[in-house]
Design brief:
By secondary structure, this protein is α/β, with parallel strands linked by helices. It is 15% helix and 25% strand. The strands form four sheets. It has an eight-stranded mixed β-sheet, with helices on one face. Strand 1, helix 1 and strand 2 form a beta-alpha-beta unit.
């Protein structure tokens, strides 16, 4: 199997180390390189990691043994790149760091990243391309939809429901049995006790939710969620 990391920026380099940790004793897995749409990164990524950028997401010739893992930490870009590569026949693999805990009854989809010391509890279900960064957690019976991103130390407690494309900031907490609507963002340090509507920004403790296109005080808040760009224009960006 040839493993390819999609995205050669900060978190891409970090994910490469997760891959080495997870597969260092598996001779059947070979790190083939990165995919990135920015040719300016070619020299720097080779110097810092010893691994090459083998192509871009539009023109790379996918081979039968290739398996892909997307490193980007923006839910919208994760969705856009997964769709682009899937339409071209790509197959995805999940990477689980050896220090993470995955309950025997938990289920995860393809393309997920379970980082160092992260936890997926009993009967939790993670759909495709979910990212749990280091020390983050999905509690028992949690349902985490595709493309959700957990920053370090964030948690979705037992029985919580995260719809597609949620972003949890560092130390954010969703309390038990709470539902968060699709496309929402939970700010760093926020504690969510009540359901959050679709495309909202939840801040504070206890949290208060605001529409992503409106600021609570000025009415000028602009969404931090970047919409998927057309295939021809999409350039792989930074990490988290």
């Amino acid at each position: 199997m040839n493993l390819i990391v999609v995205g050669a920026s900060g978190f891409g380099r970090e994910l490469l180390q997760y891959v080495h940790d997870a597969y260092r004793n598996d001779p059947a897995v070979r790190v083939k390189g990165f995919l990135d749409d920015d040719p300016a990164k070619i020299d720097s990524i080779r110097k810092t990691t010893g691994v090459d950028i083998v192509g871009d997401t539009l023109t790379y010739a996918i081979e039968e043994e290739d398996r892909f893992i997307i490193s980007l930490g923006d839910p919208g870009l994760r969705r856009a790149l997964a769709g682009r590569l899937a339409r071209r026949g790509a197959k995805f693999i999940s990477v689980i760091h050896p220090t993470a805990y995955l309950a025997p009854t938990a289920r995860i989809g393809e393309g997920c990243i379970i980082g160092p010391f992260a936890m997926v509890g009993s009967y939790a279900h993670l759909e495709d391309h979910v990212l749990l960064n280091l020390y983050s957690a999905a509690g028992h019976d949690a349902r985490i939809a595709a493309f959700c991103v957990f920053s370090p130390y964030s948690v979705a407690n037992g029985g919580s429901r995260l719809e597609e494309g949620i972003f949890l900031g560092t130390h954010a907490a969703v309390t038990p049995n709470v539902r968060v609507g699709a496309g929402s963002r939970i700010a760093a340090g926020a504690v969510v006790y009540r359901d959050v509507p679709v495309r909202s920004l939840a801040t504070g403790n206890p949290s208060k939710a605001y529409p992503l296109d409106e600021d609570a005080s000025s009415g000028q808040f602009r969404s931090p969620v970047r919409p998927p760009l057309p295939d021809i224009d999409l350039t792989i960006g930074g990490g988290r």
